[in-house]
Protein: Glucosamine kinase
Organism: Marivita hallyeonensis
Amino acid sequence: MRSKRYLIGVDGGGSGCRVALAAPDGRIVAQATGGPANFTTDPDGAIANALHAIEEVAAAAGLDAEGLEACIAHLGLAGVMDQADERAVADAMPFRNMAVSDDRATMVAGALGDRDGVLLALGTGTIIAAQRRGQVRYLGGWGPVLADQASGGWLGRRALQIAMQTEDGLLPNTGFTATVMGHFEGDPIAVVKFAASAQPKEFAAFAPVVFDCAGAGDEQAKALIEEGVAYLEACLDAVQFDETCVLCLAGGVGPRYAPYLEKRYKARIVSALGTALDGALSLARKLRDSEGG
């Protein structure tokens, strides 16, 4: 099948990538998933995994090499930091007409569409983006060592820090710290060994414990959540969030902060319009439309 300005969207991250091929009218023709596609972590692997998934959707749709080349694509890959990264990805792709961005752009396009508002995307890491009149401002995004406040990874790491302070007698032992230490059979040395090599997603496994204990009334868990809330609300204030904006909480952790936000923020919470993959397709469509395709 020859392409009639078919669209391809790619959403790539550390846990895998997703690809969708859409007909000119927006109808999804084929989808595929692939391996991790974080360009900073593994540039060659990210490109190879994205390409493999792209080839899968092309085959499923019956596109030949010429048809695939004629598709208009937008690739949003985690870890794309600058124009050099964008060029490296684009040079490895089969498309004549495409754009490359990091995954923040596709998340914003998918969640907010054209609406003025703020996206708080909190999973293992944190993405905060404010969109107003088509212009997007990002906060944070400096990686798990320097940033990612309020994320699942951050919550898990702070939970272990609090547990260690409890071991030192600096904080009271509550149900929260007992639950955290229970994962290590009460052995602080096991906690130290785990933390020495743990990746953000492994720390993030403790985030549900924080919210569950806070929901049960544990004061230490609630105080930790309030730390995260303070950061999120400081970001909302920094971008001058007001009643003209919508607020979208996304990711595995984001929606769990909703009950803890100030009333003026809670009143503006809306559901995401779509996913990052939807956002990638939307940006591909805008690229096509901007060129009269």
About this structure: The longest strand covers residues 7-13. The mean pLDDT is 95. The radius of gyration is 21 Å.
